[in-house]
Amino acid sequence: MHNILLGVTKTQWYEAWIKGNTLRESTEKTPRELDAIHDYLKAISIIWKEWLPAAKKQHQAKLDKWKSKKGEKPEEPKRRMHPDDGNNFLNLAAAMKIILARTIAINDIPLAKLRLQNYLRGFHSTHPELIKPNFHYITHIFNQILDYGPVYGFWTYLFERLNKILKSCSVNNHDGGELEVTFYREFLRKLNMISGTEHTEGLSVEERLNIDAARMILKTDTDDRGTVAALAQEIAEAAKE
Question: Taking the CB of the first residue and of the last residue of the chain, which one, N or C, has fewer CB atoms within 10 A?
């Protein structure tokens, strides 16, 4: 999903339109496209049909002042968005509506694929210099849907959210591997309690080996500042006992 939303969609909006100065921020006196963009999301193709006449009117006012004062002639307004961009973006929006749904019918996939292909061809035609690998990767989404079902069921936003929570935790300067080792040791303590490492009768060879490994790691319960490398050294020393 990062490929779709932070790759393809971001390239269209940020690289092609915002950095390309197609959609601009307002000034203190003049409202511009970005301020009104939410009002146009349902009909993005008509942006320039409304803004261009207003820009021409503003240019005419500046031109009248210039004729009386001379100086540098005001630049004539011109259309900054490619004429095909609006309708082409609707192809992407139509494809995303199907792809990102909680449920998806097999019969809807050909339509989504057609809309996406039309968008990619259109973007390549209007902005060939902005094409990125994401524009190829996104074409594999349909095989993934056929294999795993709707993307809503296998995207990784939940894990990304949990990663953000973990990264925001204060480690009180216990970084550099120490925190991870602490988590691992606590896991092994729970494993020791649940599995009953003192009773190995009736267990398979593999299960006994796992318990023996857990016992060795539990013996490394020192207060020294730990890293993964230090933990490995402690395990090696415990194994010699």
Answer: C
